[in-house]
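task queued by scheduler; priority normal; single chain, no ligands, no partner chains; default sampling; output format set to structure tokens
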Amino acid sequence: MVLVDTSVWRNVALAAADSYRTLRRRGIGVRKTIRVIIGAFCIVNDHELLHSDRDFDPMEEALRIAHLQGNALKWQNVSRALARTRRPLYCFQGSPKQGS
């Protein structure tokens, strides 16, 4: 019994490696590898990214990750964001920012 289609995750892993190299070439540091994997997952599976993590901001432009626009993201507004999008949505809430 196969629970996970390994070809999908293989594509995500390859896209994550390529994304990491692209980010490093552009001088963008990656603090946590999982964020590159999340970004690659969104790219490969054509998902939009909803986040409150500043690490994704430079990645969105450099990797052309589809994301929902908005300034201060309020997690109470997720249902409204879901209503606006036509793609599957991946939500990621990172660590609270210092001073927030």
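post-processing summary
- Residues 16 and 37 are 5 Å apart (CA to CA).
- The chain has a mean pLDDT of 76.
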